[in-house]
Amino acid sequence: MMRALYTAASGMSGQQFNIDTIANNLANVNTAGFKKSRADFQDLLYQSIRFAGTPVTAGAQIPTGIEVGHGVRPVATQKIFTHGTPRPTENPLDLAIEGDGFFQVLLPDGTVAYTRDGAFKKDGEGRIVTSDGFLLEPEIVIPEDAVEVAVGADGTVSVKLAGENEPQTIGQIELARFINPAGLQSIGRNLYLATAASGMPIVGTAGMEGFGAIAQGFLEMSNVQVVEEMVAMITSQRAYEVNSRAIQAADEMLQTANNLRR
Fold first, then answer.
1. Confidence (pLDDT) at 1
2. What pLDDT shows up at residue 177?
3. I want to staple 116 with a disulfide (CB 3.0 to 4.6 A). Which of 14, 33, 40, 147 is the partner?
4. Helices (H) and strands (E) in the chain, counts
5. Cα–Cα distances in angstroms (integers) from residue 89 to residues 57, 81, 92, 103, 219, in the given order
């Protein structure tokens, strides 16, 4: 059986995986805080028919060998953590990070997750939560008689109460960053979990020690560039078609061999 059938089939499978990745990027083009992914590939094992450097006569050796590759496989989908465009919303609980860092979110099982999506809300008890009701960590409670909420660039949360002129500080939003953010595990809902590859979270104050400042009244939009994704999709589609043509050519060659007569 011709190697080309299996080699080209691996190419088609790889391009299908690439299209799946591109489709997810495009589907989240308007998702706040979303970071696009890139599919990385590796070539498969090679069959060495003739080894380079093999001696043929005294003082002479083969300069180049003969190797036949066996296709391609996906090895990684890497998150690209470039910053998205901040969009003004005039909502006091919409927060964007201008630089590196993640908001910390407490999941129901006690696990801390991380997000760039700063579209926060208040729950029935005045606590700042995500759109799914997960608590911001550390917990911050806005008094029910607060008439104004202000979040400083360093994450300090202040409120102005009814009948009072001076604002009161009620807490501070802490940010986390990672040595290798691409190693974070995506769990959906705009959330990530720390892994051994990402390293342990480094928690600190916004605007200091390498952390980005917090901008109130803004949301960080997705970093997906539609034009780039469309070009990548066209390239992947053409590669898929070329691999299918390779399978067709191999099949026609086998058919010709099967039709040989003595």
1. 57
2. 96
3. 33
4. 2, 22
5. 77, 22, 8, 18, 7
Q: Are residue 72 and residue 134 in the same domain, yes or no? A: no
Residues of the chain with pLDDT under 50: none
User: So what's the pLDDT on residue 262?
Assistant: 60
Same domain, yes or no: 203 and 234: no
> Is residue 51 located within the same domain as residue 90?
no
pLDDT of 112-131, one tens digit each?
Answer: 999 999 999 999 999 999 99
d(CA 99, CA 101): 7
Report pLDDT for 45. Answer: 86
CA dist 39 and 44 (Å) reads 16
**What is the bridge-based pairing of β-strands 112-115 and 102-106?**
antiparallel
Contact present, 153 and 189 (Cβ < 8 Å): no
| Other CB atoms within 10 A of residue 227 CB | 7
Contact 247, 8 (CB under 8 A): yes
Q: What is the pTM of this model?
A: 0.88
15: tokens are 């391009």
> Do 147 and 248 belong together in one domain?
no
Shared domain for 128 and 209, answered yes or no, is: yes
Identify whether residues 135 and 163 lie together within a single domain. Answer: yes
Peptide bond into 138 cis (omega under 30): yes
Q: Are strands 174-177 and 102-106 parallel, antiparallel or unpaired?
A: antiparallel
Q: Which residue type is seen at 129? A: V
Domain shared by 90 and 216, yes or no? yes
Give the pLDDT confidence score for residue 159 in this predicted structure: 95
Buried-exposed string 177-215: b where 16+ CB fall within 10 A, e elsewhere:
bbeebbbbeeeeebbbebeeebeebebbbbbeeebbbbb
Give the structural domain span for 25.
Answer: 3-81+226-258
The CA distance from 138 to 175, in Å, is 10
